[in-house]
Task: structure prediction
Amino acid sequence: MNLLVLKIYDNYQAYEAWYLNDKKHRDNGPARTFVNKEMEWFCNGLRHRINGPAIIYTDQQKSWYINGTRYDKIRYKEVCEEYR
Result:
């Protein structure tokens, strides 16, 4: 198991990213956090979160994903029930 946490500064934004075996991954929080407070949850390289939105944007809009598939909020809740 190869865990790597990077602080990345590029021309667009600075962010912290967690990687496990070369894929974005974190079990207990967002795998990528930007300095503007945007957060993204990943599991094995795919956007994924079953207890809330996988992306929270700076304007507080949200996007829901399970295993890399994007859902609207209603369908997300249905899929989460099937997933548990």
User: Anything to note?
Assistant: Helices lie at 73-83. The chain is about 15% helix and 40% strand. Residues 3-83 form one domain. Strands lie at 3-9, 14-20, 23-24, 32-34, 39-40, 42-43, 46-47, 55-56, 62-66, 69-71.
